[in-house]
Amino acid sequence: MNLFKGIVLNTSLVRSFIISAFYYNLLLLFLLNFAVLISTIFLTLTSTDVPLVVHSFFDLNDAINHDGHTLPLLSIQVTELTDGIFIGGSVNHLVADGTSFSHFMAVWSEIFRSKDENAYLISHPPIFKGSDTIINLPFTHHDQFIARSEKPQVKERFFIFTSAAVSKLKAKANEECNMKNISSLQAVSALLWRCVTRVRHQPGNSETICRLVISNRRRMNPPLSDDYFGSPVGSVSGTATVEDLMAHGLGWAALRIHEAVTNHDDIAVKKFVDSWCRNPVVYKPNALFHPNTTHIGSSPRFDMYGCEFGLGKAVAARSGFVNKADGKMTRYPGREGGGSMDVEVCLLPEYMMALECDEEFIIALKIN
To answer: How many CB atoms lie within 10 A of CB 72?
Structure first.
């Protein structure tokens, strides 16, 4: 899996980070000249769809984890625009997950902002803990487990949920469940699950899945530090029939997700690891994305806009080419802060068109 994320800075360059195996991409975009009338940054932020040119701001777009044998495990690409700088990054997902990648960006920014050029003191140094365990994969040739996905024919669009919208969705979900434990992430995820399922028009008796990528750090007992550097991630799924999901409200859907997250504890994590060690498998991108699945990754807790490289606050965060498929959602912190959330939605063109007309979805987006 590739992690590709980027930040847009108000200037004229772009850097790219890449994580292989599925590489993780992040782009930060910074503005340089506010006087430019027609600019690359302007088009990036105002286009209905994410412009395809954004993908070119990342290195290793076609790389998979296994390519880490010969390609960089981390790649940083800086692209100079007419009116800004694009800092994009890609890192091999076998080496680091979104938490570690976010930590790396924060440390890099902290070093840059350090007033003592000789000290380079890091407030939260990464924690490295390895394992000497050797696991033999049940394959005789690389071709038996290597799979490269084709370029997805999906629309990519960003939707902004204000802090008021997120708070209202959370309150509504908890009220409908008569509880207080539904989180903001779970409430927004439930909304996406319901709306995407609705526009797909699947048979009522078919199963629909909301899969969330989740860090195992705090699930362990004792827990791993948030500063642990690695890729200790798993996934949890809320499931329901299409008919049930549509018949019940936001709270019912959020509760399905909440229960899946709550049940992902130390016992569940260790059970999965033990099972995988006894029967190791290599997960392929096509196996992760199904027509009936809403797959939600990343986190608005990653402080992308807190990264400072002397150009001011980034104006946007974008992702690269990898891991894009119908139903893939990527959550980002909103630039306005205060609990706001940006969500990158990838859907087939006909589903995207229907989503933009979905009443429940539109009402949530209009809350200010």
So the answer is: 17
